[in-house]
UniProtKB/TrEMBL annotation, chain A:
GO terms for molecular function: transferase activity. It comes from the Eukaryota. The chain crosses the membrane at residues 200-219, 270-289, 335-354, 361-388, 394-416, 437-461, 467-492. One of its GO terms (biological process) is GPI anchor biosynthetic process. One of its GO terms (cellular component) is endoplasmic reticulum. This is PIGQ acetylglucosaminyltransferase.
From TrEMBL, chain B:
The keyword Transmembrane helix applies. One of its GO terms (molecular function) is transferase activity. Pfam families: PIG-H (PF10181). Belongs to the PIGH family. This is PIGH acetylglucosaminyltransferase.
Length: 573, 188
């Protein structure tokens, strides 16, 4: 059976000593964590290892000896090291020795109770201790659940190094009985900025929690729950976005420390995403208010609304004539056309009533862009919805008329054939009608049938306009969702410290020499960018699309009202 | 020791198989495809630029020329970095696992390491591809619940597509190492 020794590359130039680490017998591999140098007292070493084992729950023990001789091989040292094998009895006792500056080390094992006395092959795998300790191994996404019990061999090694952090806390400047060499033995690294931030974050979190509780208390108060206001809040996407961001702030400012890697990354992602959002929002605000661009925007708003209304009026005049060469029913055409024209006239009057206040309203509303770019985009989407409210009304009128007509036609068609819809049994049954019922039914059927093209044309035109507005709003919401759900911290981590997010490992074969063990270098294989986004995506509040294409077409044909974008809080109907 | 032999791919292109034995339980097999030829590169660039000059002569808009240069540069970078695979290699380390590496023409290397515990076997499969029947080497992964089942099939050498004679060499080398794990009594 092949013996695998994982040796940290930071200990390659360490002085002679004994090796401490973990022996994983089921994989026949030894993970070396540090080198203890002479002089030491074996009892103290065992005591120290017992303490480390108690704190880190990793079965650390002395597993071998390491000799680094600058000159030729010293016989006395090698005998001394073999004798150490009897003091720290460990099965098997691994002996690694390096001569001078040679790259090729010799590695042998001493087995006292060996059943198979043949020479087993040894593979020496170098690993970067710092990177392996900080890295987080991601299991393959599809089998994350099943393979949890059958932990892979590599995750055991990563686990061992990560949990032995307490071993790496003592460096060579500490006055202790044990002198160790590991990746931090030249001095424990720490960053002042990180420590300062950690100290400052506690009061900042408490302040934020207090402010958030105030804000959510106001939001939940009874004043804002009256019927017209609550209906308005549910329709405006700005309120949804603000509520979503409030939730995010609550997650960040909670006092509980993150339990595992996923929660920590989620907090960090939300924090960075909020920061970038607010920064972009402030940038947008400064651009808007610099040359009074917002004033110009407000000035062009009314002419644009007027222009849209004029275009609609032209469209209706076209429909009231002979649109695309089709011949309409004159009377119905005139009635519908005049009805919609009057609506547009009302709408224009309302807009002109509001025009002196528009600039002021827009100026104050534009200030809320400092809450984030997503909020600004949501406000834009809401303004578009408000400005095209008349198109929405026309769509509803046209759809309702068309829907009534279609249902009337289908029911009278059944009467024409002598059938009836049985509501109890939810099916079509035959029925015998009286003569006068049949007569009136057929008359009405004919009238509805010949009036169908006119209604259908109005419905078609207004549905297309409504779909256009819905597509524009949908694109804006797509952008908002993208900004909301992108895990920016994880992406930046993948760019700058790619070893922290590991998808696996890769091995590189180093120079070999006959008779010496096989030398491999283990490097961390980082997660791909697509994998990072898939693993750490933040959940959003909307899911599209609500209907499949087939049901959408069916609804359009029957004249049912369509609401293409669903929010998670909506009840299913 | 290393040795190199020439073979042909499924579409007739000459490829080279290089075998290196690092130790008794570690072997590396690399299939190298043909490098990017200067001829084809110049032909493609000249075609794009001739088309751009033709459009420029018709439309008198110099944006066409800059657009053509940009398209050529970006297309070349995308081709070298994401499409053109120079070498595909298989590193089999008995008792550790199998590592599959693809090296692109721009120097990028994409690696996957499969642990030995997950590998059930390495086999040669047949596939019907358009009007041809081609052979390909694949790794069968063990299903953790069902000891006899296969959870996934990982195809190898997909861009160089060697023919059966080359695949047989690779198969024999892999099986020699995989057999060692069956003879070892203690294995997880």
């Amino acid at each position: 059976m092949v013996l695998k020794v994982f040796f940290p590359s930071c200990c390659s130039s360490a002085d002679s000593g004994i090796l401490i680490g973990r022996w994983i017998s089921e994989q026949n591999s030894a993970v070396i964590l540090a080198v203890v140098h002479f002089p030491f007292i074996p009892v103290q070493v065992k005591q120290y290892l017992g303490e480390v084992q108690h704190v880190s729950k990793v079965s650390v023990s002395v597993i071998g000896s390491w000799s680094n001789s600058k000159q030729e091989k010293e016989e006395s040292l090698s005998e001394f090291l073999e004798d150490l094998g009897t003091i720290f009895c460990h099965e098997p006792w691994i002996q690694i020795s390096k001569e001078g500056d040679s790259k090729f080390w010799s590695c042998s094992t001493l087995q006292k109770h060996s059943k198979n006395p043949q020479e087993e092959e040894i593979i020496l795998v170098y690993y970067d201790q710092c990177k392996v300790m900080l890295s987080h191994l991601h299991p393959p996404l599809d089998t994350a659940g099943q393979r949890a019990e059958d932990a892979s061999k590599l995750s055991a090694i990563f686990d061992t190094v990560a949990r032995s952090q307490v071993l790496f806390m003592t460096d060579r400047y500490d006055e202790g009985p044990i002198k160790l060499t590991h990746w931090q033995s030249d001095g424990v690294e720490a960053s002042i900025i990180v420590e300062l931030l950690k100290q400052a974050s506690v009061p900042a979190c408490m302040l934020l929690t207090f402010l958030l509780s105030l804000v959510s208390g106001i939001c939940r108060s009874r004043v804002l729950k009256f019927w017209p206001l609550s209906f308005l809040w549910s329709k405006l996407s700005t309120c949804e976005q603000l509520g979503h961001r409030l939730q995010h702030l609550q997650v960040i400012s909670s006092n509980k420390k993150a339990q595992n890697q996923n929660q920590l990354m989620r907090k960090a992602n939300i924090f960075v995403s909020l920061l970038i959002d607010v920064a972009l929002g402030i940038l947008l605000m400064s651009w808007l208010y610099r040359k009074n661009r917002i004033g110009h925007l407000a000035d062009t708003l009314i002419p644009v609304a007027d222009h849209v209304a004029e275009e609609l009026q032209d469209l209706l005049q076209w429909l009231m004539g002979a649109p695309a060469g089709l011949k309409m029913n004159r009377a119905l055409d005139q009635v519908l056309g005049r009805f919609f024209l009057y609506h547009i006239h009302l709408w224009i009057s309302y807009i002109h009533l509001l025009s002196p206040f528009i600039e002021m309203i827009l100026w104050y509303v534009g200030l809320s862009a400092c809450l984030g770019l997503t909020v600004a985009l949501c406000i834009l989407s809401d303004i578009i919805a408000l400005l095209t409210f008349h198109i929405y009304c026309f769509y509803v009128y046209g759809a309702r008329l068309y829907c009534l007509k279609i249902y009337g036609l289908s029911s009278l068609w059944r009467l024409f054939r002598g059938k009836k819809w049985n509501v109890l049994r939810q099916r079509v049954d035959s029925c015998s009608y009286d003569l006068d019922q049949l007569f009136i039914g057929t008359l009405l059927f004919t009238i509805l049938l010949f009036l169908l093209p006119t209604t259908a044309l109005y419905y078609l035109v207004f549905t297309l306009l409504r779909l256009l507005v819905v597509i524009v709003q949908g694109l804006i919401h797509l952008l908002v969702d993208l900004i909301d759900s992108l895990p920016l911290y994880s992406l930046i981590l993948r760019l700058c410290r790619s070893y922290r997010l590991a998808a696996g490992v890769k091995f590189r074969v180093l120079e070999q020499q006959d008779g010496k063990p096989l030398r491999l270098l283990m490097q961390i294989n980082p997660l791909s960018y697509g994998g990072v986004i898939q693993t750490y995506r933040l959940p959003t509040y909307s899911c599209y699309p609500r209907d499949s294409w087939a049901s959408l077409c069916k609804k359009l044909f029957l004249g049912e009202l369509i609401y293409p974008w669903k929010h998670k809080g909506d009840k299913q109907n | 020791m290393a040795e190199e032999r020439r073979f042909r791919s499924a579409s007739g292109v000459p490829i080279a198989l290089r075998r290196r034995q690092h130790s008794a339980s570690c072997r590396e097999l690399a299939v190298r495809g043909p490098r990017l030829q200067l001829r084809s590169l110049s032909a493609a660039t000249s075609a794009v630029w001739l088309a751009a000059y033709g459009l420029f002569a018709l439309s008198e808009n110099s944006m066409v020329l800059s657009a053509a240069i940009l398209i050529t540069l970006i297309g070349l970078i995308i081709y070298l970095h994401f499409v053109k695979i120079d070498q595909e290699s298989l590193l089999v380390i008995g008792s550790l696992g199998i590592q599959v590496t693809s090296s692109y023409a721009s120097g990028k290397e994409s690696t996957t390491f499969i642990e030995m515990g997950q590998v059930k076997d390495v086999v040669i499969n047949e596939a019907i591809h358009m009007q041809k029947v081609i052979y390909y080497l694949c790794i069968l992964l063990q299903d953790p619940e069902d000891p006899q089942g296969v959870s996934e099939v990982v195809p190898l050498f997909q861009s160089s597509k060697p023919r059966l004679d080359c695949l047989i060499e690779v198969y024999k080398s892999c099986q020699e190492i995989l057999e060692q794990r069956k003879t070892a009594p203690q294995s997880s």
